[in-house]
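Box 3.1 A note on notation
Throughout this textbook, protein chains are presented in two layers. The first layer is the amino acid sequence; the second is a token string describing backbone geometry. Keep the layers aligned when reading.
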Amino acid sequence: LLHSLVDRRRKVKQWMKNTSDRHKIQQLDIQQQALKLTAN
């Protein structure tokens, strides 16, 4: 379970790097922060 959360967060962070839409970046940032908190 922990590995899948960390892997999912890495994917979300990669999507953030490949996106130029500010609104989408904000949504992805919230998602990766939630995954980080859940994993910790």
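The chain has a mean pLDDT of 96. The helical segments are 2-17, 22-39.
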